[in-house]
Write a structure and sequence with these properties.
By secondary structure, this protein is α+β, with helices and mostly antiparallel strands. It contains two helices and twelve strands, in the order ααββββββββββββ.
């Protein structure tokens, strides 16, 4: 900086000298005399000015750049959130179309419901649905998705209800195979993660991928809703019955829109 101020001082002195010479009417002579000296000084001064300007502007440029980076990062977060919402809506629209198509095929009254909350309690999952007693919902009614039984209603209030997945330990459902006409066994949730079908007669030949459906034995669950497919068979020589472990096509955990079937068999 001292160098810069020194150069500025020299330039000022030279400028004053030119003015004085001009007043003495020897301006042209003085200018021709001084120009060879002044030009290198002015060139150096211009370079010094550029350097000073650049040096002074650096903090401002860095600040501007930091602001632009923050702005871009904010825009990226906003776009990421909007994309996530779009994908969620897209997935929900697919589910809605599927449920509406299913509704057109069935002859039972229903209530289209949304999963509005999830609660873990005693090792199990409880799902809060936005349909309740005022919509005709009752305990033990089936919760289905695209024709697949995925849960049951266990508690009902006026405007909401609580459902549990079919895999809930101890939750039982009368079931049959599509090839038969009567109840073939009982499907039960196991360890809150899987399904097994027990009490299957040994007269029935079991093979993997056999489809299991609701049998209609229960008052609140009509016949014909898919439960799952056999993926493993357990049959011991000394046992009276066979057991089949089922593969679940879909689950309540992966669903946001469901149908509650408002059904009660006529006694």
């Amino acid at each position: 900086m001292r160098k810069v101020f020194g150069i500025l001082g020299v330039f000022a002195l030279c400028f004053v000298a030119i003015i004085l010479l001009a007043k003495l009417k020897i301006g042209i002579f003085a200018t021709n005399l001084v120009n060879p000296v002044i030009r290198p000084i002015l060139a150096g001064l211009s370079s010094a000015e550029d350097w000073v300007t650049h040096t002074i502007s650096l903090p401002f440029k860095a600040k501007t750049l930091a602001l632009k980076v923050d702005e871009l990062e904010g825009l990226t977060r906003q776009l990421t959130a909007e994309n996530a919402r779009f994908l969620e809506l897209q997935n929900e629209n697919v589910q809605l179309r599927r449920e509406l198509n299913f509704i057109e095929r069935i002859q039972y009254p229903f209530a289209l419901a949304r999963v509005i909350g999830r609660v873990k309690e005693a090792g199990g999952d409880f799902f809060i649905l936005n349909r309740g007693g005022s919509d005709g919902v009752a305990v033990d009614q089936p919760v289905v998705s695209d024709g697949i039984l995925i849960g049951k209603i266990i508690r009902v209030q006026k405007s909401v209800s609580i459902a549990v997945p079919l895999t809930t330990s101890g939750l039982k459902t009368a079931a049959m195979f599509t090839e038969n006409t009567a109840t073939d066994g009982i499907v039960e949730g196991e360890l809150n993660v899987s399904l097994k079908m027990s009490l299957i007669s040994k007269d029935i030949t079991l093979i993997n991928n056999m489809i299991v459906i609701t049998s209609g034995l229960e008052q609140t669950i009509p016949r014909g809703f898919v439960i799952g497919k056999i993926e493993r068979i357990e049959s011991k020589p000394n046992d009276l019955f066979q057991t089949a472990y089922l593969k679940i096509p879909t689950s309540l955990q992966n669903t946001t829109l469901v149908n509650i079937i408002l059904y009660h068999a006529i006694d």
